[in-house]
Amino acid sequence: MGSDQGRLTELGHEVRNAVAPITSALQVMRLHLREPARIERERLAIERNVERLIRVIDELLEGQLSASLGTPASARDDAAPIWRRLRIIVVDDNVDAAETLRDLLVEMGHSVRSTYDGESAISWAATWRPDLMLVDLAMPWPDGHEVARRVRDMGIPTSLVAVTGYGGERHRRLAQDAGFDLHVTKPVDERKLDEVLEVARVQR
């Protein structure tokens, strides 16, 4: 029973990770219906993650569910001159998930940096002092929990939100113990994202 539950939890995580960038990409595409280059970029992200979702299902059927994710890193700053703008760091070793969420946040008027590993996230937090960090939990070490612990230990006054495919109560408790303010399961729709952003505005 425990083994079956573990496999279901892992399945939920992998499916959410594949669906999250698709959801964000579709939201960005709705905002850029007359920009072919931008739509093509988001279309390719959707295509890659649909293929990833199919692989997850295939592996499940074969009894070999496993994750295979890369960990490149980059950062980018986009300015938006509105008073409600937040400084946000998106951290996810799923590049498509990080970039599509970053694109959506930029479209909403925020200054956003994206990175794909924990060490870079910690470094950016120390130098850039963000209002909000959206952090995936299941990354290579340092994982999301360790990122939260180190950011809290440095005394950086930022809102920490776990954005993850793991939605169980145990994972919520672990996130809270690590120092996260909120735990949000993927995919993050616009309504849920608005709620997260409002919490960050209140706390800053």
Number of helices: 7
What is the rounded Rg? 17 Å
Multimerization status:
single chain
Q: Count every beta strand, where a strand is a DSSP E run of 2 or more residues.
A: 5
CATH superfamily label of the largest domain = Response regulator
Helix and strand sequence: HHEHEHEHEHEH
Q: Strand order of the main beta sheet, please?
A: 2-1-3-4-5
How many domains comprise the coordinates? 2
Low-pLDDT segments, ≥5 res: 64-83
CATH architecture grouping of the largest domain: 3-Layer(aba) Sandwich
Beta percentage is 5-15%
- Briefly note the structural class of the backbone: alpha/beta
pLDDT averaged over residues? 80
Q: Share of helix among residues?
A: 55-70%
Shape: globular
Q: Which CATH class of the largest domain?
A: Alpha Beta
* N-end to C-end Cα span: 44 Å
Report the CATH topology name of the largest domain: Rossmann fold
Query: The biggest beta sheet, please?
Result: 5 strands, parallel
